[in-house]
Write a structure and sequence with these properties.
Length: 331
């Protein structure tokens, strides 16, 4: 297959949002994928029927015939709108591909824009990783009761989209406008009820949100220390990596209604001087009307890139592990 591209691949989510034909294409794509039982958890691909393989290829960002793509996207006008907004590319041989991948757990879906280059990751790129699925699974486990949920630092919006199957109102927030624009596009993939439940907001942690009003709050907090994060918004957690998770935990738990549950994926660090900032923060919350616990995850060690353990990544660091911090507001 030749992939001689005739258009650029620069991703511009804000241009799609202002194109009704491009939004229609996303709605049609979401409808076809839901009908075909499409599940894509990073390589764990599933689809109900082999005849839907071209549809799965389209959703994975592979090249397929433009006429076939057009069938799944609501017609030539919608396909043209995607090309015009740089959300798709076409070759001289009429092979068409999307500039993004669709993530799906079979119910919730989200758009993950492809990077122009894996070597040059922009600081405002939109993140999804294996921990996204971990957050989704923890949300499945802990997000059981109530009407209102919020996904802080939503990225693609996948977990917020998932929460619409459990909650009447779901807010998805992020400080990165590129992420909130992408989450808005992800919303277009959902069926009408889910779409009407999901609201996307650009803000800093919990700024502007009413305290005490959410039954479930979740976050996959950035935890990488500044000197290792290259300024990337999705990973940089502050100087030691805990400054931003601390804010998410403090401000996120303030959002909880009585009996509400907060979960944060983050790193638990302990230092040779005996300090453990996450544990100490949760102990403080225990004194102020919350019940807390720390559940280790099966995700890789946060500082696994260090050659031998954790000592060289932060001064005085003794141990580090990836955990889910769970906080419940007492009745
Ligand atoms: C590790 S990513 C997780 C994204 C998504 N929740 C997921 O699990 O795929 C962290 C997210 O937090 C967002 N973020 C970083 N700083 C933030 C802040 N001060 N306020 C709100 N969101 C922030 C980033 O833009 C990014 O989308």
């Amino acid at each position: 297959m030749s992939t001689t591209e005739t258009t650029e691949t620069t991703w511009a989510p804000e241009r799609l949002l202002t194109s009704p034909a491009a939004c229609l294409a996303l709605r049609e794509l979401g409808r076809h994928l839901a009908g075909a039982g499409f599940i894509n958890r990073f390589g764990r691909l599933q689809i109900d029927d082999e005849k839907n393989e071209p549809l799965a290829d389209l959703a994975l960002g592979k090249y397929i015939d433009v006429a076939v793509a057009s069938r799944f996207l609501g017609g030539p006008q919608a396909t043209a709108a995607l090309l015009e907004t740089k959300a798709a590319t076409i070759t001289e041989e009429s092979r068409f591909s999307l500039s993004f991948e669709v993530l799906s757990d079979g119910t919730a879906m989200a758009i993950l824009p492809f990077l122009d280059s894996a070597d040059d990751v922009p600081i405002d790129s939109v993140y999804a990783g294996t921990d996204t699925w971990l957050l989704r699974d923890q949300a499945w486990k802990y997000g059981l009761h109530g009407k209102r949920a919020i996904d802080l630092g939503t990225g693609t919006g996948l977990v917020a989209a998932f929460l619409t199957s459990r909650y009447e109102t779901v807010v998805a927030t992020d400080i990165n406008q590129r992420a909130t624009q992408t989450a808005q596009l992800s919303r277009e993939l959902l069926h009408e009820t889910a779409k009407s439940r999901m609201h996307v907001v650009t803000n800093d942690v919990a700024a502007g949100l009413h305290p005490g009003t959410f039954d479930f709050v979740c976050v996959n907090a950035p935890w990488v220390p500044a000197h290792r994060a290259d300024g990337r918004i999705y990973s940089q957690g502050g100087e030691t990596g805990f400054e931003l998770p601390r804010r998410f935990i403090l401000e996120g738990t303030e959002l909880l209604a009585p009996n509400g549950i907060f979960i944060a994926l983050c790193a638990e660090l302990s230092f040779t001087d005996g300090s453990n900032p996450l544990r100490e923060l949760l102990d403080d919350l225990e004194q102020n009307g919350f019940a807390t616990s720390i559940e280790p995850t099966h995700a890789p060690h946060p500082f696994h890139a260090a050659a031998d353990g954790t000592a060289e990544t932060l001064p005085g660091l003794e141990t580090a592990r990836h955990v889910t911090a769970v906080v419940k507001r007492n009745p």
